[in-house]
Amino acid sequence: MDAVDGNAIGGLLIDVFGAEMSAAGSTCATCGASRPVAELVVYRRGPGTVVRCRTCGSVLMVFVTRHGVTGVDLAGLASLGEPGSALSGRRNQGQGGTNEYAR
Ligand SMILES: [Zn+2]
Q1: Ligand 1 centroid to residue 41 C-alpha, Å
Q2: Is the pTM of this model over 0.70?
Q3: Do 26 and 36 form a contact (C-beta atoms < 8 A)?
């Protein structure tokens, strides 16, 4: 598979989170590595997009778009938010499950 980096999904992240997220910090729930979303490893393969930790290779985020609705699974992330903040990133009511955002 051809891997790209988090910059490649900037538009997708805006669609899902409603904000520019590529500069936001992410923390891997498996190894604890923190880095900007833009530096994560992204595999794009229809119909889903898989985002992996560059340090340990764990899956951090999975996006699946089907019929115009994007579902996102953030279960692999310990945190997601602005660099240096304690924001959990769970703006919506998800508890490690899948949130769906209808357009
Ligand atoms: Zn990791």
Answers
A1: 11
A2: yes
A3: yes
